[in-house]
Write a structure and sequence with these properties.
Beta-carbonic Anhydrase, Chain A; carbonate dehydratase activity; alpha/beta; zinc ion binding; EC 4.2.1.1; 16% strand
Length: 236
């Protein structure tokens, strides 16, 4: 706690004075972040640091395993954060960010986790699809590090699938107002791998490259029926 208090003192005396106008503007005008980041609670993964984002630029929610429960399976902070970010803040992008050496993913592979941490085990059931994919569809002889990497990446994709079940997200995607991103931060190298939905794989993000996306904002779509010819539909 001494380090935390010392850090706040440094912020208050050295950082805040130069940023005072920014914070005052954010209070006066309110926040207008352009992206929601759903990240793991792991202390080594700090979205604002990784992206060098300033105050007011990211709306962030963090939890064990960067989990997004499917809509209606439970009420909780993640569901509320997604709904608020899309409907109230009108974010244009949602990022789900996993990472290497993830303790949650190690727990997902541990058969006896429920004996010692039943609540964590229950929460991580939302990653069961990713675990099943890695156990059944990946080679049995891959080493532990690669297996953990694969599981963390598959979990990002599983949570993107869950995210699409949220009505606010589904509506914004259909209206062409939202883009989804899947990221994997490799702690040991500092590399950011992003999921390319067209290629169906994660790629290392390079500065000169365009940012691949998991699901791009679609063109606003019309209904599948011809609303101008009700008599034709009735005859059919």
């Amino acid at each position: 706690m001494d380090n935390i208090v010392q850090g706040f003192t440094q912020f208050r005396e050295q950082v805040f004075p130069s940023q005072r106008s920014v914070y005052q503007r954010l209070v006066h005008d309110g926040q207008q972040p352009k992206a929601l980041v759903i990240s793991c609670a792991d202390s080594r993964v700090v979205p604002e640091l990784i992206t060098q984002a300033g105050p007011g630029e990211l709306f962030v929610t963090r939890n064990v395993g960067n989990i997004v429960p499917p809509f209606a399976t439970m009420l909780g902070g993640v569901t509320a954060a997604v709904e608020y970010a899309v409907l109230a803040l009108k974010v244009r992008d949602i990022v789900i960010c996993g990472h290497s050496d993830c303790g949650a993913m190690k727990g997902l592979l541990a058969p006896d986790l429920a004996d010692t941490m039943p609540n964590v085990a229950a929460w991580l059931r939302h990653g069961e699809a990713a675990r099943k994919i890695v156990c059944d569809a990946y080679p049995d002889d891959i080493d532990d590090r690669r297996r953990l990497h694969a599981l963390a990446m598959e979990n990002v994709l599983a949570q993107l699938n869950h995210l699409r079940t949220h009505p606010a997200v589904a509506s914004a995607l259909a209206a062409g107002e939202l883009t989804l991103h899947g990221w994997f931060f490799e702690i040991e190298t500092g590399h950011l791998l992003v999921y390319d939905g067209e290629a169906g794989r994660f790629v290392v993000l390079a500065e000169e490259d365009a940012l691949p996306v998991a699901e791009a904002a679609a063109a606003p779509r019309l209904a599948a029926v011809d609303v101008g010819a009700p008599e034709t539909r009735a005859a059919e």
